[in-house]
Amino acid sequence: WDLIWFGFGSVIGAGIFVLTGQEAHDHAGPAIVLSYVASGVSAMLSVFCYTEFAVEIPVAGGSFAYLRIELGDFAAFITAGNILLESVVGTAAVARAWTSYFTALLNRPHESLRIHTNLTSGYNLLDPIAVAVLAIAATIAMISTRKTSYFNWIASAINTVVIIFVLIAGFAHAKTSNLKPFMPYGAKGVFQAAAIVYFAYGGFDNIATMAEETKNPARDIPIGLLGSMSIITVIYCLMALSLVMMQKYTEIDRGAAYSLAFQSVGMKWAKYLVALGALKGMTTVLLVGALGQARYTTHIARAHMMPPWLA
């Protein structure tokens, strides 16, 4: 159960709240549901690969450990660099998005919580809140894996309540007429959107790095990975469907799709709940990300590809 909730915490973040509206509007229309099915199936294929490796090689290194055994040190070294880069860049992006949603929750102007400097445009907005959130997430992860798991359970439970609310309220205001035409951009649009919404499924590899913390990794990791991904795929498809049935795809806002869709059906207060759900989701993504990053670093240092004392 801990692993299933870790999967929940590391995958369900801002992706579903941001990408759904953008892709339904630009590429897929109401067929965004099929895009989530397609990318869910392809994410599940990756999960099967991770599962097989996690059973054979139950160590903390995740994909780094698997590649090192299968393809040798050179491939593993490049992978290690990629994993660390992805962790740093990915968590930085999520932390900045955290500030954006927090600003929306406080009903303040768009960039008001960032420090404006005279650096080059695009690099001139410093984000102290993002730094603080990252530091807090890393500190919680350092205190203990068990306590992190409890915190993740609570946050994911709150997130689940928000998602259930979005589904119930969305389907209560649904109109089947909004589903026509179902595939305005054809199959090409569906797969174009699927390639983008795949990002909403990212993060499941963090579960595979927990192999050394589980009592029976050969049984627990597959259940954790497959269990969480199955539930997440169903949730994503239902959330996408509720959005395109609530509002015509041409009218969906690309930036804050759910908030403005609720506003359009007269539920202005719902935007605060959506922002809160997205914040909760991003917090757990950062938390489980910090855990996974530490596990990867441990194993890379054990392999002496960085100073061994880092292990």
Which class of secondary structure composition applies to the elements? mainly alpha
Computed over alpha carbons, the radius of gyration is: 20 Å
Largest sheet: number of strands, sense, barrel closure: 2 strands, antiparallel
Order of helices and strands: HHHHHEEHHHHHHH
| Number of discrete helical segments | 12
Average residue pLDDT: 87
CATH topology: Amino acid/polyamine transporter I
Give the oligomeric state of the chains in this entry, treating copies of one chain as homo and distinct chains as hetero.
single chain
CATH homologous superfamily grouping: Amino acid/polyamine transporter I
* Principal-axes shape call: globular
State which percent range the strand residues make up. Answer: under 5%
Span between N and C termini?
Answer: 27 Å
Number of strands: 2
Write down the domain tally.
Answer: 1
Strand order of the largest sheet: 1-2
Q: Can you identify the CATH class?
A: Mainly Alpha
Question: pLDDT below 50 for ≥5 consecutive residues: which ranges?
Answer: none
* Proportion of residues in helical segments: over 70%
CATH architecture: Up-down Bundle
Protein name: Putative cationic amino acid transporter 5
Keywords: Amino-acid transport, Membrane, Transmembrane, Transmembrane helix, Transport
Transmembrane segments: 6-21, 33-54, 74-104, 150-170, 182-201, 221-244
Main location: membrane
